[in-house]
Design goal:
single chain; 8 helices; 434 Repressor (Amino-terminal Domain)
């Protein structure tokens, strides 16, 4: 992801400090991302995606990968994501590990969330 951030920054003729201000982090954080020394933390992901204009996390094959990608794109923890889905965090963890799959009402809820047709207001 660091290379994508760097490419976008250069395409826009921005300095690392400019990108840092847009995302809400410090300049050295952007430097470390671009050099591959670190990856954006979960709370930075919404602004990183906004800056890039794409979601680099969307390249997913399985439902479990799509669930994790969406949660990260929203910039929320697994615990908060589970709460929003109305499930226990351990259930979400089982879905993520593909030990279980959502069915019925939960599958419908997950599909709505994955489609992006869900407005998130953390309780």
């Amino acid at each position: 992801m660091g290379e994508e951030i760097r490419k976008r920054r250069l395409d826009l003729s921005l300095r690392q400090i400019d990108v840092a201000k847009m995302i809400g982090c410090d300049e050295m954080t952007v430097v470390n991302w671009e050099k591959g020394h670190a990856s954006p933390r979960i709370h930075h992901m919404p602004k990183v995606i906004e800056f890039l204009g794409i979601n680099p996390l969307q390249k997913c094959d399985t439902l479990a990968q799509r669930i994790v990608s969406r949660r990260k794109a929203l910039g929320i923890t697994q615990k908060d994501f589970a709460r929003e889905l109305g499930i226990d965090p351990s259930t979400l963890a089982r879905w993520k590990r593909q030990e279980r799959i959502p069915t019925g009402h939960f599958l419908s809820t997950v599909e709505t969330v994955l489609s992006g047709n869900q407005t998130w207001v953390l309780h």
